[in-house]
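Query form — protein Pyrroline-5-carboxylate reductase

QUESTION: What is the three-dimensional structure of this chain?
INPUT:
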Amino acid sequence: MNTDSLTLGFIGYGNMAQAMAQGLVDAGVLPGGRIVACAAHYDRLVERTAHLGVRPMHSGTEVAAAADLVILAVKPGQVAQVCEPIRHELADPDRMVLSVVGGMTLEDYADILEEGTHLICAIPNTPISVGQGILVTQEDDTLTDQQRELFTQVFDPVAMIERLPRELVSVGTTIAGCAPAYTAMYMEALADAGVEHGLPRQAAYRLAARMVEGTGALYLATGTNPGAMKDAVCSPGGTTIKGVASLEKHGFRGAVIEAIDAVERGD
Ligand SMILES: NC(=O)C1=CN([C@@H]2O[C@H](COP(=O)(O)OP(=O)(O)OC[C@H]3O[C@@H](n4cnc5c(N)ncnc54)[C@H](O)[C@@H]3O)[C@@H](O)[C@H]2O)C=CC1
Ligand SMILES: O=C(O)[C@@H]1CCC=N1
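ANSWER: The structure tokens for Pyrroline-5-carboxylate reductase are given below.
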């Protein structure tokens, strides 16, 4: 099995599944016609699958029968119910299952899937839709070496795959999977300030977005400590340091750390 013959099936075709399908099709990993999906509302599914040519199916049973790689992409509270009728099909040794369900680890599936099911738990983030995603995966999985290789072939073109031990998956996921929302809030705030000072809204968003993208790219290319990256922008007596001092006065870094803590505590 390789990506040329792989059929991928989504059980649940909401925001996350659509982001993954978009990224994979745009990156040329596989055509929409080799992706199948089911969801709670068939009519809405037909609308959401049309533009990529993803094939809508009526049930998880049909998806499991058609797909070599089945992606569980429903809400955590729905996963046991959707797996129950297809446990046997999911345990087929030629099939692999990827769970992208928030908060679910390999251990959580012990009562949900049959023993021997080839399963990997990973959490993607929404930038996967433009090939710039992250997949935080639990280090231990039950894939064969060949399946693990195939998993990498499929997702490497659209995401950085970060394998973490089970106890660190949660915080890794919070930073990679939840923080796009906080980063979008930061971009929105920067743009609001730009608009306040007369910048057209779209130009302000463009500047904020490219700045976030470029700052991340600079770190990834050089490995420079983020503190040193900050220092490099702050000329003595210059403009940037005034903003740094203001952010510190308003608890910027503390607020970010507290947001991650809140997710981890489950407030
Ligand atoms: N949105 C995000 O950024 C991320 C989401 N996730 C995880 O992905 C999963 C899905 O999240 P979203 O796509 O955001 O939610 P969503 O609400 O947009 O999508 C849920 C999908 O499940 C379908 N569904 C509900 N009951 C079903 C059933 N009985 N059979 C088949 N399909 C059914 C719905 O029709 C819908 O297509 C969650 O577990 C979430 O934790 C993980 C990483 C990031
Ligand atoms: O908020 C959520 O439930 C999901 C999990 C990771 C990102 N979004």
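ADDITIONAL NOTE: Residues 11-17, 38-41, 60, 73-76, 78, 82, 100-102, 123-126, 177 surround NAI (ligand 1) (CB under 6 Å).
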